[in-house]
Amino acid sequence: MRIAAVTTVLLLTGCSDVSGIENRKSFGPITTMIDLFTSCSLLKTDVGPVLFDACWRPEELRARLTENGVKPEDVGTVLFTHGHQDHVAGLAILPNARIAALAAEQEVLTKYVKGDATIDDVLTDGQVLRFGSTEVRVYSVPGHTAGSAAFLVEGALVLGDNALVTAKGALGPVPKDRSADPDLNVRSMVSLADRLKAEEREVKWLVPAHSGGIEAGSALQTFADANR
Ligand SMILES: [Zn+2]
Asked: Relative to the CA of 200, which of 9, 73, 118, 211 has its CA 20 to 30 Å away?
C-alpha cells in the first residue's frame, strides 16, 4: 500500500514542471507542512489547531506538528480538500480530530482512511466555518475527486490537488490522469475564480498540496481566463 502511494505521488509530480514545496512556509494564517512530494497546512486558531488535509505518513506528520509546537492530540478538526491516501493517512496520529469534508467525498475517504472514515462534520458549498475568530469559507470544486473542496482563510486559498503552481510561478491544472474527471476539475477552477471575483473576496495566496504556494492571487484569474 505504501509503495502504491509513493508511485501515485511521483506520478503526480513527475508529469508537471512544478515549483518546490517549502516546509514551514507561511501563507497568511497557514503554514505548510511537507512530506516528500505532498503537503498539508496548519492553521492555528484561538480554539486550537486546525489542519487542511492530514498529510501522508503519520510519523512525518507528527514531526512536522512538533516543529510547529503542536501536539497531535490537540488537533480538533481536519478540513479535507479530498480523500486520497497522501492527504489522509496522517489521521492515524490525530486521535481527537473530526473529519470535515463535503458529503460527496465520503466514498473516497472510505477507500483510503484506515478505520472509521465517516465524515463527522459534513461541509456544504459556500459554508462559513468559524474557529474562534477565524473564518474559513468552503467551496465545492469537483473534478479531481467527486467531493473535492477548496478553502479560503484570510486571503489564503487552500487548493489541495485541484491545481498546481508551475516552476514559472503560474497556476496550472493537475495532470489529467490523476483526476477522476479532469475536464470538470478545470471547469470547477474557472467557476471558483469567477465566484471569488464576484464575491469580491481577497485572494492573496494560492496554496496547492503538490507544489509550492505563491503570493499571487491574480494567477487564479489568469488560469481561468486561459481555460474558458
Ligand atoms: Zn489527490
From this structure: 211
